[in-house]
Write a structure and sequence with these properties.
Length: about 210
């Protein structure tokens, strides 16, 4: 990550925290009152193939000490009513502003993977994680809804894992590497705006 991108991440994260702190408080109170503790869901993710960190999100599901892997249809019954609303508007990801300030992730980059998938596909993630992970990216904009649909149709943890590894991992990796080849500071800003409006910038569509 270049100093310019890091500075942009810090400034934007501080600005968003200054603007969104009332929303954060409302979310915390809503989870505490309607769903109880814990408020946060903290998950180990990988910044590089050998460097883990703890990713923060608002909790959207009932707790399960045996939980593992990505979320599919087999976990749908655990999503709380509060969590469903947060997921719809991606409010559950607001605590990741703190991850950005800590330097764990940036605003734009590949989504940070779980350790199990990095260990399962070491060569693939060695290439993907050359860029610092981010809250959003080309794979998020292009493939997120398709991924949700694919995984929502899975009825068992085993099916979820099979579909994620066979259909999602390679597609997202290809998109992340396409973005890495086109990456500029200006494009990062376009990607952040595109995330708000859920559109892919034309420059990416043309080059990809």
């Amino acid at each position: 990550m270049t100093p310019a991108r890091r500075l942009m991440d810090i400034v934007l994260a501080l600005l968003l925290l200054a603007v969104l702190w009332p929303v954060l408080i409302v979310m915390v109170l809503a989870i505490l009152i309607l769903d109880g503790r814990p408020v946060l869901y903290i998950s180990e993710r990988m910044q590089t193939p050998d460097k883990p960190f703890m990713l923060w999100k608002f909790r959207t599901m009932t707790t399960d000490k045996n939980d593992s892997g990505v979320s599919g249809g087999d976990k749908a019954h655990r999503v709380t009513r509060t969590g469903a609303v947060m997921r719809r508007y991606r409010l559950d990801e607001l605590p990741q502003l703190m991850n950005i300030l800590r330097g764990d992730i940036g605003f734009v980059g590949p989504r940070p993977p779980l350790r199990r998938y990095v260990e399962r596909f070491p060569d693939l993630y060695a290439a993907v994680l050359k860029d610092r992970p981010g809250v959003t990216g080309l794979a998020t904009l292009v493939f997120h809804r398709t991924e949700e649909k694919l995984l929502s149709e899975c009825a068992t943890p085993q099916e979820t894992e099979e579909v994620y590894e066979r259909r999602c991992v390679p597609t997202k990796a290809r998109l992340d590497m396409i973005y890495a080849k086109n990456r500029t500071l200006r494009l990062d800003l376009r990607m952040m705006v595109a995330t708000v409006f859920r559109r892919v910038p034309p420059v990416i569509r043309k080059r990809s």
